[in-house]
Design a protein that fits this description.
It is built from 8 helices and 13 strands. By secondary structure, the chain is an alpha/beta fold.
Length: about 250
């Protein structure tokens, strides 16, 4: 089994979104995903990035608040897969850590392919409700919550979805966020999605600021992930591992 880190470009956000008690100074962070080449279950994609036509799909207020700092041809999901030696139709399963637009946007690439999309039940419920009521406007967008997609709901606190691929319900940033642990032959890797954008969020338990939906859930999930990381001696990969002020 192989694990690839995918570079989907960079997004710019207010620093207060990443760290609590910070101001509106802008910060640039890498958008990441992961691809598992599984010996039995094929290509498994964790997070999908953004679509090439995001400027046409995203509301103006989102583009102004969270502009894309870098998105070149080499950051497109289809191009990334091609460089590794695969195509979009080779993907056998998609796992969404959560359904925010910079994580679920790449679902645009999979329209009509009927690939299973795994998402936590609480996340799908919250996402659909947010779109319907506009209470979390911009974070979730209706065209990524299409009924035609092959949604597969997970309602477990912890599950080995595929051999050596484990998902953990870690709410806080969103109600249904799922972190993922991949057990390779010699190493374990723990991907936090946006539960922890940076190592300070994870190691020092610095809350994620305006990106928070429930602080108490986030605190419990952080300690849960720390326990998992220690137990399996896992290499922890926060979502925005590379940040820089602009």
């Amino acid at each position: 089994m192989k694990l690839y880190i995918l570079d989907f470009g960079r997004i710019i956000a207010p620093k207060a979104w990443i760290y609590t008690l910070e101001g509106l100074e802008k910060i640039s962070g890498a958008m990441m995903g992961h691809l598992i080449v599984h010996p039995k279950d094929g290509l498994i994609l964790y997070e999908t990035g953004i679509p090439p036509n995001y400027e046409d799909l995203w509301p103006k207020v989102v583009l102004e608040t969270f502009p894309i700092g870098e998105y070149k041809k080499e950051n497109r999901l289809d191009v990334i897969l091609s460089k590794i030696g695969y195509k979009l139709s080779d993907v056998s399963a998609i796992i969404l850590g959560h359904a925010h637009l910079d994580h679920a946007g790449g679902l645009e690439f999979f329209r009509g392919l009927d690939v299973p999309i795994y998402i936590h039940k609480r996340e799908l419920e919250y996402a659909f409700c947010s779109v319907a009521t506009k209470e979390d406007f911009g974070a979730y967008l209706p065209h990524y919550l299409d009924f035609s997609f092959n949604w597969k709901v997970i309602d477990d606190d912890e599950i080995e979805l595929f051999d050596n691929v484990f998902l953990y319900h870690t709410p806080g940033h969103t109600p249904g966020l799922m972190s993922m642990r991949v057990e390779l032959k010699e190493k374990n890797f723990l991907m936090t999605s946006d539960h922890a954008s940076t190592r300070d969020n994870f190691e020092k338990e610095v809350p994620i600021g305006f990106g928070m939906r429930d602080f108490e859930d986030w605190r419990k999930s952080t300690r849960k992930l720390k326990y998992i990381a220690k137990k399996y001696k896992a290499n922890v990969i926060p979502f925005q591992s590379h940040l820089g002020l602009i």
